[in-house]
Amino acid sequence: MTERPTEPFVPTTRFAVPGRIVASNRAAAGWQPARLVEVRRETARASTFRFAVPGWTGHLPGQHLMLRLTAADGYVAQRHYSIASPPADSGHVELTLDHVEGGEVSGWFHRVARPGDTVEVRGPLSGFFAWPGDRPALLLGAGSGVVPLMSMVRDRRLRRTAVPLRLLVSARTPEDLIYADEYGDETTPVFTRAAPPGARPGRLSAAHLEPYLARPPAEGWEAYVCGSNGFAEHASRLLVALGQPVDRIRVERFG
To answer: How far is Cα 31 from Cα 157, in angstroms, rounded to an integer?
Structure first.
């Protein structure tokens, strides 16, 4: 079923850029030093950066933080980044960053940053996209949009909860799939340009979602969509066409 809704669809949404809501003004008010302790390569263009943040008070899966870099000449750059690590990773947070062409902050991380370097972080921010872990979650992500969704997957595994969770993650090729070694039975990868032997490449489609939306859990799904503007719009329309209530779709987008 791929029919588009007859009425204009405008999902409730927050953007993965400055301006998103703050879940706790008090918790997010102050800047804290964060020391880079590890860098892990995920794909040719994405790496995970692990920080020690002793004063971090914890977060919910799906939240993000603001990161601040200050140059020797006083120039300041700030960016919002989704948190990849689960809440149980006490005193540490992990960010997975694409190397954006011309990006001053992502460029610094990928070309210059080394363990021992210190930045400043503020957060956690935004309760809109957070998953409290007590309701079935249907997660749809593309590219680096999988980062906040992986925090949810990791949290569920660590808590060993039986709450249903399913992840559909889209990437151009298997080599572009972030966290490829971590996915389990809860995950369905979708490859848009080149697929493994025996599979055909193509966009996320109704056929991928129908098995979950035709027989949802008794409580219904809370859907979380994260990716580019084009992916967020496409995935949200698929969900609505297959019967997912609009008020139970949470969208974060970038680009």
So the answer is: 30
